[in-house]
Amino acid sequence: MPYTLRVYDTLTKTKQVFRPVTPGRVGIYLCGPTVYDKAHIGHMVGPVIFDAIKRYLVYCGYQVTWVVNITDVDDKLIQKAKQRGISMAQVAQENTEDYLANLRGLGVDQIDQMPKATEHIEEIVRFIQDLIDRGFAYHSDGDVFFDVAKDVNYGKLSNRSADSQQGEGGEAAVKKRSPGDFALWKAAKPDEPAWDSPWGPGRPGWHIECSAMSRRILGKTFDIHGGGLDLVFPHHENEIAQSECCHGQPMVNYWMHNGLMRAGAGGKMGGRGEREAPQATIDTKISRSKGAGGLADLIAEHGGHTLRFFLLRTHYRSTIVFGPEGLAEATTALEAFTRYFERYERITGQSFYDVTPVQRRQDGDQRTDSDGSPHELLAEVARRRDAYLAKMDDDFNTGAAISELFELLRSLNKFIDQHDLDDPAAREQDLLRTLQRATVTLRELTWLLGLFCSAPDDQAAAQDSFVEPLLALLVDLRTQSRQRKDFATADQIRQRLSELGITLEDRKDGTVWRLP
RNA sequence: GGCGCCGUGGCCAAGUGGCUUAAGGCAGCGGAUUGCAAAUCCGCCAUCGGGGGUUCGAAUCCCCCCGGCGCCUCCA
Predict the structure, then answer these.
(1) In whole angstroms, what is the distance from residue A257 CA to residue A233 CA?
(2) Most buried in the list A20, A185, A232, A290, measured by CB within 10 Å?
(3) What is the reported pLDDT for A265?
(4) What domains are defined for chain A?
(5) Following CA atoms A112, A116, A117, A122 in sequence, which dihedral angle do they give, to the nearest 10 degrees?
(6) Is A165 helix (H, G, I), strand (E, B) or coil?
């Protein structure tokens, strides 16, 4: 391969050349949600970036298996179920459905498997028994704990020493040998959901499900393990401890952690509604305790494309400040693309969304004109494409790659301007063909990020109603005024529409209108 | 207290030793285009929190300071 993929690895704190365990194949495990409450935008950072990463790896020719787990048994789920007087399974199901719907809303459609902890209890029990047999875990009055002191490598991911850990206090602490020990299995209290085990009825502790399920699906050593930065400790640290002590081999070759999201000044995570307290901005961290839950509203209000673009605009390891200003800017920036799509369709008669993207990476592809000679535009486009790919190769720098998208857009618009393709009379077949071929690359590169994959349906409402014929009428009247040089009337129509948020653009091939 | 991150133009944001004479976006200004607009194109708009050091060369490495933030307890 003429290119080299580099991935930042949290364990070594360096960018590493990417080499899969099995040539040609990649296994990715991303820590999904514990489904005790509705999803919020912060939960989507990982899924969106990994969705783009999977697309990219597939584009580069890898056969990728991407797993996102659902943790559907946990103290918080139990607590929630009690509060609401429903079963834990119901709580889990509701919130899982909410999570899935939001993933769809953001165009995350590359996940291959979404295993649930409760469906892997046997595997989990087996895993725990193995750890006990190997002397890394101990049974204590119905609970099973991982014995941190037995793991000489404990703390390597988060750079902590085992004995400096406080561990959770409370009643469990009494049963532990050391405060840093963590539960693999928790004995069931009355009224709690429980499964049989060699240690009595109980349920898995947090962490163990990921070790068990990743092994089951991806193997003892797999390529990429992802999650939010907040999971480095204790979750991933404990996963490594469990898996590596159990298997005696590395669990993961590349640990990838996305940055966390923060609410910007005045930002509200849930979309509508007042903030709970005037002081809410003091705690700018986005946490589930802040009464999030309006992600569906957020998607409905701003559109999945915009949110996805907003997330991809910032490097995945950085903190993303989420707020209305950033969202508004993303919306504006994105409109340049949709305007191009409309322009492209007017000129070629083909919808951008119907353009078939190139699905496989081909660096340095020399595209030529129909007569076989290299075309200036196509050469320029190929350069942009290579620059884009180089940025993606460098730890999936989507923000930098997006800058090439804007450059590409400029090249395309410039070509149209230079050849006056807005004028139907100037539309020679060769020029149109070149434009179409160049646009394939824009399609290819936006597709890779999962942007503009399908036509937005937000205009559908307007088209179903009176809006379209009404606007057609006004535009016709205005066009007639302009032909009569009655600009006062024409401008009045445009002005009044503008006050309604409707923009008119007079182009060589007619007047087009745009809703707010 | 321990571990770690960040501070780039008015705002957002790439870049982390020379190939960047600091990408891209938003906003702004000037021009082309337009009946006028809108859109589009062209041009303009930063020496990288402060100080010191290493180096032939630093936004990029080291030290100190100032200012933000995260984790160490549940969190994507």
Answers:
(1) 11
(2) A185
(3) 53
(4) 8-132+206-262 (3.40.50.620), 327-448 (no CATH), 460-514 (no CATH)
(5) -80
(6) coil
Tell me the CA–C1' distance in angstroms for A161 and B26: 46
Which two three-digit tokens encode residue A473? 């009428």
A391 in contact with nucleic chain B (CB within 7 A): yes
Average of per-residue pLDDT across A12-26: 93
Strand B proximity: list residues 58-117 of A with CB under 7 Å: 76
What is the DSSP code (8-state) at residue A34?
Answer: B
Query: What is the per-residue pLDDT for A57?
Result: 97
Kindly report the bases of strand B lying within 7 A of a protein C-beta atom. 2-5, 11-15, 23-27, 34-42, 69-76
Mean pLDDT of A393-403: 95
Q: Do A221 and A251 meet the contact criterion of CB atoms below 8 Å apart?
A: yes
Which region among A200-204, A278-282, A353-357, A382-386 has the lowest average model confidence (pLDDT)?
Answer: A278-282
> What is residue A87's predicted lDDT score, i.e. its pLDDT?
93
Note whether ipTM > 0.90 here: yes
% of chain A exceeding 70 in pLDDT: 88
Distance between CA atoms of residues A326 and A319, nearest Å: 13
User: How much of chain A is in helix, strand and coil states, percent to nearest 5?
Assistant: 50, 15, 35
Distances (CA, A) of A30 to A122, A158, A163, A274, A385: 21, 18, 28, 33, 28
CA→C1' distance for A417 and B33 (Å)? 10
Span A160-173, pLDDT tens digits:
876 666 555 556 67
Q: CA torsion angle for A209, A210, A216, A219 (degrees, to 10)?
A: -150
- Tokens coding A381: 């486009």
Residues 6+ apart with CB under 8 A from A59: A359, A360, A361, A448
- Residue A323's pLDDT band, with cuts at 50, 70 and 90, is confident
At A195 the three-state DSSP class reads strand
Q: Is the CB of A46 under 7 A from strand B?
A: yes
Name the token pair of A376. 């200036």
Closest nucleotide (C1' vs CA) to A331 is B26
Please report the pLDDT score of residue A163 as a whole number.
65
> What letter represents residue A507's amino acid?
R
- Whole-number pLDDT of residue A271: 32
Amino acid at A60: C
Cβ atoms of A211 and A174 within 8 Å: the answer is no
User: Tell me, what amino acid is at A259?
Assistant: G
Q: Please report which residue ranges of A281-397 form alpha helices under DSSP H.
A: 295-302, 304-313, 324-348, 376-393
Tell me whether strands A182-187 and A202-204 are parallel, antiparallel or unpaired: antiparallel
Token pair 């390597």: residue: A156
